[in-house]
Amino acid sequence: MLKLRFALLAAASQIIFASMLYAQDELRWLVPRAMVASTELEIVWQFNLPMGERESLDQLFLCGNRLCALSSRNFLSCINRADGNVMFANSIASAGLPVADFDYYKGELITIVGDKLVELSADFGSEKTVTNITSGAVCPVVRNDSFFYIAGADKRIHVLKADNKVQVFEVAAENDSRITSVIAEQEFVVFATAAGNVIRIAPDKAAKVWQFNAPATIIGPVVHDSNSLYFACRDTCVYRLELSSGKLLWKYQTRGILDVAPQLGGKLVYQCVPDMGLAAIDKTTGKFVWQVKDGVGLLSESGDKTFVITKGGLLAAMDNVKAKQLYSVYLGLPVKYATNTADAKIYIADAEGRIACLEPAK
Hints:
Helix content: under 10%
Number of strands: 32
Structural class: mainly beta
Strand order of the largest sheet: 1-32-31-30
Number of helices: 2
């Protein structure tokens, strides 16, 4: 009888110990495996960034096949987004020095650090060029093969040759309004202003091709897809313009004053509306499709499904055909995310530096 009691106690201890190990293991996961077990989602990988005392994760963004994370101390980590392996981890600026949003161009990360235009290798994180910028920058720097386009605090776009960073011309809106965003391709450059102007210019000279005037500030950036431009305006509307002509194709009125740009999916445009959530709009017709209460951004799409992040820390899966929510998973707070339109993978993180990749089961 005594041996049986000891055996039962030993078995109970083993169960308790195993439960404790399981609980500790679950705590290290950004998204506990038990939470995704009832969904189609699978955890592909997780990487925990090493964080110093009082350091936190500030930015999470995609650059080609890389997932980049910038900490509050300007430590940049670049991760292979397929397998979670770290490609490099470097300090790119002194802690406290302002670092603007990044642009990615053909294997290079481009940003403004303090008053300098900096090009980094996206493979190694090393500085390739550093150029002083006297005009400052009010929105992310963009480039094409030939030129850099820097929207300065002086309400001018300063155009620099890509090879030697020498300014070749500058351009401004006729009303001299503040520039809110610039997009650049080989064939065109488009910029928007606080006065509500969307202006297409030639990429190699200060020549206006067309101008569209909205009634209020354009909330940058303007986003481009095929022969269309999409943007949010402070007049509560989302607009779609024809790129070649500047013609208005449609306008969708929301029920709030917009403060962020739309995000583009395959068939839908996603617009966050303050105090209302994330609205999905048909890209072709401009018609309302669905809305997620408290939704703040697009995570990814998978066929006719869309994955949305909410300010309450939920990951919501939406059926775009039936316009209804399929399920939701609580991720906790705070949550950082990177919008991915290349495939169905979902990239999320928390301030402590836990970064996870999820994917719908195939």
